[in-house]
Here is the input.
Amino acid sequence: MNLAELVERLGLTIYTDRDELARAVGGGYAGDLLSDVIAHGRKDQVWVTIQIHPNIVAVAVLKELAAIVIANGREPAPETVDRARKERVPILGSTLTAFEIAGRLHELGIRGA
Amino acid sequence: MALRRFRADLHIHTCLSPCGELEIYPRRIVERALEAGLDIVAVTDHNTAENTAATVRAAEGTRLTVLPGMEIASAEEVHILGLFETLDDILPVQDEVFRGLPDTPPRAPFIKDQVIVDAEDGVTGFSPHFLMAATRLDVREVVDLIHGHGGLAIASHIDRPAFSIISQLGFVPPDLELDALEVSPLMTFSEAREGLVPGSRLPLVRFSDAHKPEEVGRASTAFRLAAPRLEEIRKALRNADGRRVCKP
Here is the structure.
């Protein structure tokens, strides 16, 4: 599954450029402590979080995550979006809670481990 | 003006903090600070300055200087110490933080009494604010708010697994204009420099984060200053005019 399909299936908002959405999704991770995501996130995962600070982009780059999905209808800070565009990290959003997003990702066959 | 060493513990909670013991009230803090050989302390309750005036007053006539402070929880749940010179400086900061706190849940038996006291340790009231919550201000807005009122912004206990800038944000954002980083007594400065903030030029300091009277002064930082004032500490953190942070 790629990000474009995910956007369509979950009705996600796209905050960054559409041409990044061909990227394949290889799993998922959820968490709001960036130190924890640095320790346990893995390459190609979509990361579900409520954090919107620009540091989330750096974590996604560091761990080569496929995308960041911001839960609960939170809007990423403008600086976060700027940085994400520059670093080519897709940022997506949903009004659903992190729990609900993780459940739907799982239903689509995306696993955490 | 002659420079000398001043020993400071600038991270102390009072009985107002939801996690502070009832026994940590102004005169106890002053008494313990003097016993511990401290010259300067700061009262830094979570998201409030409601006990700072009483503690400043409790120290009047002693050789201890009390600076008003707060430990503000940002939207990312990063704890930032804001230290100020006067009560007039801190009150508008407190107003802004209160505005950014969620309403206290109507039934919250898990919240212990948030006790407001006077300089004679008499209970004058209870804070109605949801002090254990986080404000809506993000970490940069918190730092800007502190600086906007002449304060110093210090990231709390950066080595701790909860509520530290590193636990919450993974690393210290390089463009965040902090004045210093606080390291808990559990980690040495060289471990912190190498392991947590490689390349950072921010000064490291160590304070007690006391929640009980006996913890006041269990960790402290010595500064070389002309007088026990915030402006002098600011110079020391910037290594200016001969003021400096003394080696531990």
